[in-house]
Amino acid sequence: MTGSVRRDAASRFTKASPSAIYDAFVLREAVVQWLAPQGATMEIGTSSRALAGASR
Questions:
Q1: What is the pLDDT of residues 26-42, one digit of tens each?
Q2: CA angle 10, 46, 27 (to 5 degrees)
Q3: What angle is formed at CA 34 by the lines to CA 33 and CA 39, rounded to 5 degrees?
Q4: How far apart are CA 39 and CA 27, in angstroms?
C-alpha cells in the first residue's frame, strides 16, 4: 500500500467535568483505564505533562 494514507476517527459524548476530562488525558492511571481496548491491559512507561508532551 505504498502512497496510501489511513485516517481513523471516532467520537463519543461523555458527561464529565472539564477537570475530569483533563485528568483522563494526563494521569497515567486514568489513561490506561480508557485507552486500552476492553479486555486488554496497558502500561505506560513514561509520560510528560508538558505542553506537547508524550507518552510511551
A1: 888 888 787 777 888 77
A2: 55
A3: 75
A4: 21
